[in-house]
Fold this protein.
Amino acid sequence: MSEVTAKRSTNSRGFKNNLEEDEEKIRKIGKLAWKNLVTKQVGLKILEEFNKQETRYPEQSHLGTKDYFKKMSPRKARILFAMRARTMDIRGVRKYMYDDTTCRLCGEHCEDVNHVINECSHITRTFEIKEEEIMSNNVEDPDELVRRMDEFSTKLKEKEKESTCDETVNIQIPVSSLTI
């Protein structure tokens, strides 16, 4: 077996894949088929390694574009992805940025994803979405999940805008300092 063939069957992290490494067989199946086979095996190994890790994310059955990217508008898909990737500006998620994790809308509880989706009194809702469903692909109504998160972001921006406007209006300049 040549060095080139051995390199082809090992991915960047050094994992040996379950591939035939006989040069003659590789030549027979062709370059594109070999490339697809290696890609598939590397993907399976990555998936296996991901599922071994202890994370709060559910076990994945395959690598690829998630269904919500295919079915939702790009704007909604970005919101859902940001929420699941925990990159949204939520105090309880970004504790390193905030000293206080109290909800900026209701001021009552810790501002985390579950609070925003299910508990905040300023967000309109008619039913609860289970916390484990929020991070899974099995949410019954992903549009509702996105709507709640979007409502939170919109109301938060409005509140911040109002407080900025209020601060601007309250600036007082002493009349004695003005010259005419």
Q: What stands out?
A: The chain has eight helices and no strands.
